[in-house]
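dude i think i finally got it to work??
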Amino acid sequence: GEMGAGKTTAIVTLSEIEVVHTEALNTEREVVDKDTTTVALDYGEIGLDSTSKLRLYGVPGQRRFDFMWSILKRRAVGLLLLVKNDSSDPTGRMIEFLDEFGEIYGRGGVVVGVTHMDVAPSPSIADHQRAVRERFPELAAPVFTVDPRNRPQLVTALSVLAASVETRQRLISDGRDA
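look at this
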């Protein structure tokens, strides 16, 4: 998602290890009034069992750092897209990011988490769902309200994403396209 959507906060909330940050001073205070912004990636982990872990990557939301997007898109199998609902065009930005990261859906799954609904209740979740359906009728992308500081909400979104990835990969391995 775009700068200020809560990506870093979500990774800090979820990670069971100390998060690796690549923060720098925010030079676009007119876009989002915060002190720092991610310039390469944030990295955290969640242990799934004694031998497996889920790697969490947060990439910068600004297009000028899209070189990191390319790196992530090559291997990622799931995308939790955070949409900043109090931005100037949240549904438009959501569609842009879904377009940009579409190849991840080809291998796995996508879940949309809409943040900042407490300060900007419009557009609604139904508006976001409608925009996804209209632009990507084949895309099964659940849309949730998510507070990046709320671990249970994030775990729910990740659980849905994991189920989506698993289902899609089974269909692909069975020779069927999902």
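The longest strand covers residues 78-84.
im so relieved honestly
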